[in-house]
Amino acid sequence: MSQPQPIGSPLVHIAGVEKYFQRGAEKIHVLAELNLAVAPGEFLALMGPSGSGKSTLLNLIGGLDRPTKGTVTVAGERIDQLSDRQLADWRARHIGFVFQLYNLMPVLNAERNVELPLLLTHLNAAQRAQHVAAALALVGLSHRAKHFPRTLSGGEQQRVGIARGIVTDPTLLLCDEPTGDLDRKAGDEILDLLCALNREHGKTIVMVTHDPHASARASRTVHLFKGQITNEAVK
Amino acid sequence: MKFAHLIWGNLTRKKLRTTLTLLSILVAFVLYGILCAVKQALIGGVELAGADRLVVRHKVSIIQLLPESYQARMEKIPGVAAVAHQTWFGGVYQDPKNFFMQSPVVPEDFMPMFPEFLLPPDQLKAWQQTRTGAIVGRNTADRFKWKLGDKIPIMSPIWGQRNWEFDLVGIYDGAKKGTDTTPMFFRFDFFNESRSERARGYVGWYAIRVKDPAAAAEVAKRVDAEFENSPAETRTEPEGAFVQGFANQMGNIALIVASILAAVFFTILLVTGSTMSQAVRERIGELGVLKAIGFTNGQLLGFVLAESCLLALLGGGLGLGLAWLFAARGDPTGGMLPLFHLSTGDLVTGVAIALALGLLTGIFPALTAMRLRVADALRRM
């Protein structure tokens, strides 16, 4: 269970994290002695070239992977010590994901896609429908609720992805290159939406991006290179 | 149930592939149902055989006749409660394809011996009063649309190569589900007097009712001992063994059916297993997304298993349903398989096989889905 957060303490606290992958006899270091804190309500951008470890760091924060060494604490809970089952439950309660390629289920329409995380809650069908409608309204897609992903544009699909990410009102929204597959106009709309979620709804967002234009919208940008933080910029 | 749309959506994602797999399973289960009905027709009589009845036939072969006079001697053997004889008539009605069993019997002996044949008392009385009278089972009466009072010509290639004409005085029903109601029975006295003088006084085989079923083996020995070293030695066995032996003339039916079905289901196992594996491989990324959202390993295992079981149960259910409809129309051979029907036991076994098929074909892809590492799976989206 989450511990109560002392006022001013970070929502995400990463301390001395190392991560390496074993490829045959070779040990590939992805993150090295990394420390990072994310405050509640912050909009953090993680930037860096390919292979710098930003997606791996996002996976660690989201409980999709475990560090080789160090601790990952989110909302007062040491998630690096949780079992697979506990991590799955924890993700369902605390994390909303937004992916670069939207990752919607092609066999489900927009509202069914948004409903997916709610299937893991105790809400009944009517309550789930209410939450789904609210999330779709928030991303401006109420009129496309019955549409399947193949009939939606990239920007619309990403909005559905965001609605799915926020429908359970998660503690943390993690976005992996959310504008990476969109043109500038659609990308800007998505960034506007993320900014609004951060500003008006107080959502804490951690976003991985290659795009300086996107990172400029975040309240803080952290640059990674070869698994280490090389630079930080606060807006 | 709240996951039903997800499971159904995945199942119908590749409609052509799912339909073809479904059809493969359906055909396998239609074959299963029909083969079970054939097996039932050939050896089902074993299950229906009376536990307290013995059959006495000529020691050499069933086609060798036994003297009618044996009946009186059998009735005196300790442990014997009643005796009735039958004889193979082997006739056809109008056309050789209209074959069904006919047998001359003594009504007063025969009806008490076989209580599974239900004949109204007034019809029994009419039979006893009509020398040329015959009774027939409901199945055959319906098949040829016979009614009481009809004159039935039966051509027998064995007994005189001529048409025998009978008066239909009774139509009997079966007391149990599966009782064979195709045979026709007529009076032995009429038959005996009408055949050639050389054949008179002989019958095909005897049925014996024993006083104590537990002592049936002992009684059988006594019967055979009674006629030992006579010109017509006997072989006595339980009715079930007699029916089984009759069916086994064609081979071990159960083994043949089981072998065919094993080959069919092994093939279907490979076809469905391959389909399920491919279906899971194609959506590794989506499974990763579900895991990222918070679905547990157990839930993903359940989804894939539910999908494969649903596919197998749908195909199996439809196949069994078609087979049942086919079998419900009765004997497709026009008399060679009078007990042709799909039993409830075989239907239940069919459903169990479908479920096992679903579990077996789903378990390996399901384990693959369960063991996926989320980060790896997401990279394959």
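qc> Residues 38-66+81-234 of chain A form a domain with the Rossmann fold fold (CATH 3.40.50.300).
qc> done
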